[in-house]
UniProtKB/TrEMBL annotation:
Enzyme Commission identifier(s): 2.7.11.1
GO cellular component: membrane
Annotated transmembrane regions: 237-258
This protein's UniProt keywords: ATP-binding, Glycoprotein, Kinase, Membrane, Nucleotide-binding, Receptor, Serine/threonine-protein kinase, Signal, Transferase, Transmembrane, Transmembrane helix
Membrane topology: Single-pass type I membrane protein
Protein name as catalogued: non-specific serine/threonine protein kinase
Organism for this UniProt entry: Fagus sylvatica
Signal peptide interval: 1-16
Binding residues for ATP: K334
Length: 609
């Protein structure tokens, strides 16, 4: 019996009985090629070859370091595909030589003469040797915390074609890599590849051979345009031709628009020779190209066809309406009365002046409208920001209104002073308003003043101390030398400002009625009280929060005397121009016309207030 058993065992070994050498069981699958001798390579080189063939750029030699890095990344791609299929990071050690032979043969097909191992110094074990004895998916996952795995799955389980998701995925993998692995000899083993090979195989749902995954995780720039060569050739022609057609079309559209604009300008009356001089004046100041030209229909719609319920003011030059533009903004629209050829020049002048100045204490111009309609005739309209709180005139002299406190009146005086200082010294050439009065000072919700109505404004050429012009303005506000001799300068505005300041102090109009003696100028009335030693009687009765008596009394004296026929400073008598020209030399003659105005004077006046 023992003899028969020994004979049977020997025959079995000689004949290769299947139960002994047909296969070797692993812990998760049967791998037929894991034998003691050389084994065939289990890598799927077909997937890598397909990516290379379909790459429009193909493989071309760049330099040795670059090519060696490409080779290492290609091996990682093959290992990731192998990991996805088998659960192993590396093929059996006895398959390393076969894998290298197949890989180098593939490379030689596209880069002839490039031998990977000798050129790059890679060892044969690079393909099959593990790091830290990690060979399976389960072993790798056991070293990573659940929170880190969750982060990797959240960042890498998406298309990685775009830069943002790719960068996010790479960042999460790099943090894992730096926590668990150290840089070994990259020519012998490949420790740093574990997170990237794992993520491409099991985290990214598109798999390791997806173009986005290949480009992001293995830095292999393949463009899968193979099989689409014909379509690409068509695109190569279509794109430049489309660009040329687009450029030509854009040039054509610009030329058509230019032609239409030129014809439209030739028809506009505003560009007639009499008004071109005014436009050049605006260019001297700096101009304002942001002014909008509104259509008459738009203006009518905004004002409900100039309805009486939208009328908010009347003046010598026109009526003022409130309006609502199509964008929802509220505006004030001044419609000129003298709508004739002569009115065109006046209108163009006002547009020129307002458009050239931008200051917190000056009303800003939104735009204008010019139109000639047979029923209405000439239409000249300016569009400004709507100041909702009315004018200083309304608050000082309106019936039933609450009296303004002294701090508010003081702030109004300061704002008007700053606005006038800007007109006189903030623009070149300087601008003389010529119509500074209470009704032309608008107040916003915080009682910040806005100087409006530049209809009578004039430029002051450089080097001239004054202009000789026809007298214009409002009775009670016009400076004596201007009314008598027609000599206009910045001092004329300062005189008018002094009258406004006296109105703020007294609560009385520039022209008042005194008993049965008829009308009198506010300046003369105030000066008469000052001469009698009753300066405080000028102060408005019941003014809230009145200042110190000595201060208000001095202001009243200064306004009544100094502004009765002068301006802000009198250089001849060494006046200091303090408190808006309030403190003056006792030798000052109120009827003298020898005075001057300067930027320093304005600044000191503003500082004192």
């Amino acid at each position: 019996m023992p003899l028969l058993f020994s004979l049977f065992l020997g025959l079995s070994l000689a004949l290769g009985f299947p139960s002994f050498n047909s296969c070797i069981a692993t812990d998760h699958e049967i791998i037929p090629h894991r034998k003691l001798g050389n084994a065939p390579c289990p890598f799927n080189f077909g997937a890598l070859r397909k990516l290379i063939v379909e790459n429009t750029k193909r493989l071309t030699f760049v330099d040795v370091p670059t090519e060696c890095m490409y080779m290492l990344q290609a091996i990682r791609l093959l290992r990731s595909d192998y990991l996805q299929r088998t659960g192993y990071f590396f093929p059996p050690a006895n398959a390393s030589e076969a894998c290298w032979d197949s890989f180098e043969s593939l490379v030689d097909d596209f880069i002839p003469g490039f031998s990977v191992r000798p050129t790059c110094g890679y060892k044969t074990s690079l393909i099959s040797e593990s790091c830290m004895n990690i060979t399976t998916r389960a072993q790798f996952e056991s070293l990573i915390s659940e929170s880190e795995l969750k982060e990797i799955r959240g960042k890498c389980n998406q298309s990685l074609e775009n830069d943002s998701p790719c960068a996010s995925c790479i960042h999460s993998l790099s943090s894992v890599n730096s926590s668990f692995y150290r840089a070994n000899d990259g020519k012998v083993s490949d420790c740093a590849s574990y997170p990237y090979v794992y993520a491409a195989a099991f985290v990214n749902q598109l798999g390791p051979t997806d173009l986005g995954t290949v480009t992001c995780l293995f830095t292999l720039a393949f463009n899968s345009d193979g099989g689409k060569t014909k379509k690409k050739r068509i695109l190569d022609w279509v794109v430049p031709v489309s660009c040329v057609i687009g450029i030509f079309g854009a040039v054509l559209v610009v030329w058509i628009c230019w032609r239409r604009q030129k014809k439209w300008r030739e028809k506009r009356e505003i560009f007639n020779p009499t008004e071109r001089g005014l436009v050049s004046g605006m260019e001297m100041i700096g101009g304002n190209n942001s002014v909008i030209k509104f259509a008459l229909d738009e203006v009518k719609k905004a004002t409900k066809n100039f309805s009486r319920e939208n009328l908010i003011g009347c003046g010598g030059y026109g009526n003022v309406y409130k309006g609502l533009l199509s964008d929802g903004s509220e505006v004030a629209l001044k419609r000129f009365k003298n709508c004739s050829a002569a009115g065109d020049e006046s209108f163009a002048h006002e547009v020129e002046i307002i458009a050239s100045v931008k200051h917190v204490n000056l009303v800003a111009l939104r735009g204008y409208c010019t139109a000639t309609v047979p029923p209405e005739g000439h239409q000249r309209i300016i569009v400004c920001d709507l100041i909702r709180n009315g004018s200083l005139y309304d608050h000082l002299f309106g019936s039933g209104v609450k009296k303004l406190s002294w701090p508010i009146r003081q702030n109004i005086a300061l704002g008007v002073a700053r606005g006038l200082a800007y007109l006189h010294y903030g623009v070149q050439p300087s601008i003389i308003h010529r119509d500074v009065k209470a009704s032309n000072i608008l107040l916003d919700e915080t009682f910040e003043p806005k100087l409006a109505d530049f209809g009578l404004a004039k430029f002051t050429p450089d080097g001239l101390s004054h202009l000789s012009t026809q007298v214009a303005g409002t009775l009670g506000y016009v400076a004596p030398e201007y009314a008598l001799y027609g000599q206009l300068s910045e001092r004329s505005d300062v005189y008018s400002f002094g009258v406004v300041l006296l109105e703020l102090l007294s609560g009385k109009k520039a022209v008042i009625s005194i008993n049965s003696d008829g009308a009198s100028l506010l300046i003369d009335w105030g000066w008469s009280l000052v001469k009698e030693g009753r300066a405080l009687d000028v102060i408005d009765d019941g003014m809230p929060e009145l200042g110190l008596p000595e201060v208000t009394g001095e202001i009243c004296s200064g306004c009544s005397s100094f502004f009765s026929s002068t301006s802000t400073c009198k250089a001849n008598y060494g006046s200091d121009c303090e408190d808006i020209g309030i403190r003056f030399s006792s030798s000052f003659n109120p009827r003298s016309s020898s005075y001057t105005s300067s930027r320093d004077c304005w600044q000191r006046a503003i500082d004192k207030l």
